[in-house]
Please model this.
Amino acid sequence: MSPITEEETVASLRARLARTERQAAARQRQLERYAADLREVFKQERAHAQELRRSYRATVRALSNAVEARDAYTGKHAERVAAYGMELARATGVEVADSPQIEFGFLLHDVGKVGVPDAILFKSSALTEAEYALVRRHPVIGSEILRDVDFLGEGKLVVRHHHERWDGQGYPDGLHGEAIPLAARVFAVADALDALTTDRPYRPASTFAVAREVIRAGSGTQFDPAVVAAYEEIPDERLALLRGALG
Ligand SMILES: [Fe+2]
Model:
């Protein structure tokens, strides 16, 4: 057997190197294919999640519109409250700001009114005590209706607690101060803002400036002072813009 020459050793090493390089290149191509597949899966997942969110939102809006359709004069109240509420949540600088669940809660806050007869809800004379007690049940009826709708999450707390007051004099649970879920405290200011700046059969709409005075006066009694302070950061022009966008 002839001894292995230096050339043969070099050739063998070169061949091994070439083989290793080919294998590395194949692995590289395989990894790139995996990465491309993953990117595609992520893209599809994201599109799917967006589609799901759109469907949720459309469903919530449909339900909210169905509730509002009964009440001619509040037209788009829920949409405006939701817009003011989300703006306020952002100004309050809280984690609720970008939560679709909270927005859904804003939109559906009065869904429990479906359980209150028209004869009571639209009665033009004063309500009896029993009738008023029934009207005051709408947050509980609402949260019962939505109890098993998991995707509403914290939004359901808005529905139950949207008539609580900072001083504990609200309903249905008479919660006090920070015991009231933050989103419901934000909602209370947004709701008052829209109620004040919308025409009612018994009074014309206030200007945003007048509404601001009224809400300021309710800070610490009806409203969370921190939420009122955040509201003070939002100029009336911005609120008018939000309202205008909803037509
Ligand atoms: Fe309500």
In short: The chain has a mean pLDDT of 91. The radius of gyration is 30 Å. Residues 109-110, 138, 162-163 surround fe (ii) ion (CB under 6 Å).
